Amino acid sequence: MARFKHVARKLRLAAALKSNRAIPIWVSAKTRLRVRRGFSLRNWRRSKLKNI
Fold first, then answer.
1. Furthest-apart CA atoms within the chain: distance in Å
2. For 32, left (φ over 0), alpha (ψ -120 to 50), or beta?
3. Gap between the Cα atoms of 51 and 40, Å rounded
4. Where in 1-52 does DSSP place strands (E)?
5. DSSP state at residue 48
6. What's the predicted TM-score (pTM) here?
């Protein structure tokens, strides 16, 4: 990827980075382990972002 990134692309990458984190511990405690992990966890090597 180029060193210079357009602002729109940089904002989309930042949003993808923020959405790629585990759920808080209190969520699984409050739902009594019905919710165990986020459904959209992404690894940089396994699955790539589309249209960014």
1. 45
2. left
3. 16
4. none
5. P
6. 0.72
CA proximity to 35, closest of 47, 23, 44:
23
For 1-52, the pLDDT digits (tens) are: 789 999 999 999 999 999 999 889 999 999 998 888 877 889 999 999 988 7
Domains of the chain plus CATH, in order, are: 1-47 (1.10.1620.10)
Q: What letter represents residue 25's amino acid?
A: I
pLDDT of 10: 94
The Cα–Cα gap between 51 and 19 comes to 16
